[in-house]
Amino acid sequence: MTVRRTEPDRRSRLIDVTLDLIAEAGVAGTSHRKIAARAGVPLGSMTYHFDGMDELLFAAFSRFAETIITRFEERLSAATTIDEAEEAVVSLIHDDLTGPRAARDRVLTFELYTLAAREPRFRAITHEWMRRSRVELERHFDPDTARQVDALIEGLTIHRGLDPEPPSRGLTEDAVARITARNARR
Q: Which residues does UniProt assign to DNA binding (predicted)?
């Protein structure tokens, strides 16, 4: 009798490996074969856990977005005043979105945005990400201000990641203060 070894966390591990490979080689450079090799699993097990690359990418980017959203929610839910909410926004841009993990997250974000721009199905992930970001921001700011702050976070994150002279913390503090000055829920 052959004993079949099971790995209850294999699907989850395949998703993690997929995210690592996307961060290194992009969506275009990621394949079932590379994922299976990196995860140390038989290539055939890929189709056991996922119907195809599209399903695997959707699961991977959904997990990634959930991680970012959770970090965002934790940071903003700790704020109890408008000043703390403004500081939380600045910290998201300058503290949470820097360092080695941040570089990986930035690449994954850009890859998700590119995929969502081409494939409507993946927009569901970005729409949920934006919706939940705004819900958390609306705990502190009116809906229009929340939308503006959300866009500022995205824009400054891109600039901090790609600009050879990224915006300073002071510039970010000033931008947040200007956007929230008239419309904050005080």
A: 31-50
Distance (Å, rounded) from C-alpha 13 to C-alpha 83? 40
Position 36 scores a pLDDT of 95
Letter string b/e over residues 6-42, b meaning 16 or more CB atoms within 10 A of that residue's CB: eeeeeeebbbebbbbbbbeeebeebebeebbebbebe
Domain coordinates in residue numbering, the chain? 52-180
Token pair for 109:
């974000």
**65: nearest Cα among 8, 148, 122:** 122
Question: Which burial class, exposed, middle or buried, applies to 90 when counting CB atoms under 10 A from its CB (0-12, 13-18, 19+)?
Answer: buried
Q: Tell me what percent of the residues of the chain surpass a pLDDT of 70.
A: 92
DSSP string, 75-143: HHHT--SHHHHHHHHHHIIIIIT-SHHHHHHHHHHHHHHHHHHH-HHHHHHHHHHHHHHHHHHTTTB-H
| DSSP SS3 for 184 | strand
CATH number belonging to the domain at 52-180, selected among 1.10.357.10, 1.40.20.10, 3.40.640.10, 3.40.50.40: 1.10.357.10
Residue 133 phi/psi, 5-degree rounding, is -60, -45
